[in-house]
């Protein structure tokens, strides 16, 4: 496995990215148009051969903090630390872009990701109910 970092839309990986996203997020679609609206999109991809096995997407938030937006790993590859590797690579890369903080939102339904966030030094700032009525946890971390 190797990690690929793409600033912008990962056109060559788009179909596989959308498949993993749909599986991780209960069939939810991730249209190209939604990605195109994310200015400063950063894509960190875990690739084995010519197969995408995991991803981490984020973009700069207007308040100057980098927002780690979406991520997921194919079921067959879970439990191998891939999400952690993607997160570490994202944090290293955004440091080079001048960011000092990263924020993400989590949901209780994705407990493995909540644990991963805590293991990697994120603090819980607060919680809120989103527009779809889902309870979300706000995590934030200061990076080097």
Automatic annotation (TrEMBL):
Gene3D superfamilies: 3.40.630.30. InterPro entries: Acyl_CoA_acyltransferase, GNAT_dom. It holds the Pfam family Acetyltransf_1. It comes from the Bacteria. Residues 4-144 form the N-acetyltransferase domain. This is N-acetyltransferase domain-containing protein. It comes from Lysinibacillus boronitolerans JCM 21713 = 10a = NBRC 103108.
